Amino acid sequence: MTIEGDRIYLLGATGRIGSVILPELIKAGVQVTVYARSPAKVPKAENITIVQGDYDDLTPFENSIAGHTRLFLLVADREDLDKVKIAFGTRAYAAGIKQLVELSARRLPWRSYNVVHVHQQAEDALYAIKDRGYHVVLRPTNFMTNMTDYDTIKNDNRIVDSADSDEQQEWISPADIGTVAARILLQPVEQHKDVAYELIGDVKTPAQRAAIISKLTGRTISYSQLPVQELYDFFIKAGETPSMAYYMSTYQSLSPVSRGLPLLLGRAPEKLEDWAANNKDLF
Ligand SMILES: NC(=O)c1ccc[n+]([C@@H]2O[C@H](COP(=O)([O-])OP(=O)(O)OC[C@H]3O[C@@H](n4cnc5c(N)ncnc54)[C@H](OP(=O)(O)O)[C@@H]3O)[C@@H](O)[C@H]2O)c1
Question: Which end of the chain is more exposed for a tag (fewer CB within 10 A), N or C?
């Protein structure tokens, strides 16, 4: 699937999504440059070049972006995520890249959540750049891995949330996001042009989640519906920022599974039960 002369620049290669993309690019034999703060964490391969750098000094990026055709732009959560993304994206377009694939988040009502709004700001600013290459955006909903971030299942045999036990919630597996990104990066840029893809892979209630993990682990996993203040305090105590704690304790949005996902993935999306079975050690 490689396209002659393509050189792909990858951010976030050692994270949940990037670690799915990188092996696909290695397998495809395309030239890849990885920007990483800890090069030792990046898998080695003949077609990979590693540039050591972080978000706070973009000099190594500026010195190495020339000659690349595409950029996968993923920035880890932080309050100034918009500024960091805009800084990388602006430099990449100025260097002549033909396609930027941006990892964003679901569009929610304007300014309703800071942690999502920073993604919207970055998307809009990069989209508005004149005479740029293509701008593809991936807008995933809640990652299935969020369920295990605080180890309440592992340590306490319970799922905590503020939703009603029968409330439908959106999910996507990080493996699916990474697979979609890798496929887009290996397909002709004209195939996707400037599209923004919403990524919802499954819809499940808290009670269904508890039943799936109970069956998988052989333990009884219960669902604890917490008052929203208690859930917010839980996230603050775990070290989250007020913006992130507000988002995670109140997020309430529901759309159906994205009908286009099988086209992007080349297969059916992972159901929550598939993701759980593939990640049993997390519970
Ligand atoms: N969780 C959700 O439900 C959700 C939903 C929608 C969108 N998102 C978005 O998804 C993104 C996170 O993706 P992910 O889960 O794949 O991330 P992740 O697993 O946390 O990985 C983050 C990546 O960024 C790198 N990184 C972190 N700080 C850095 C720095 N200062 N300089 C250079 N590199 C740095 C990390 O490198 P190291 O290995 O060195 O740490 C790692 O490669 C965020 O933008 C988030 O807003 C999340």
Answer: N
Rounded to the nearest 10°, the torsion over CA 221, 225, 228, 234 is: -30
Give per-residue pLDDT as tens, 229-283.
Answer: 999 999 999 999 999 999 999 998 788 999 999 999 999 999 999 999 999 999 9
Distance 40 CA to ligand 1 centre (A): 17
> What length is written for the chain?
283
The alpha-helical segments, DSSP class H, found in 99-148 are: 114-127
Cβ atoms of 126 and 85 closer than 8 Å? yes
Ordered by where they begin, the domains of the chain are 7-142+172-201+256-267 (3.40.50.720)
Tokens of 113: 């959540």
Which ligand 1 atom sits nearest the alpha carbon of residue 56? 31
Task: Kindly report the pTM of this predicted structure.
Answer: 0.96
Q: Whose CA is nearest to atom 18 of ligand 1?
A: 15
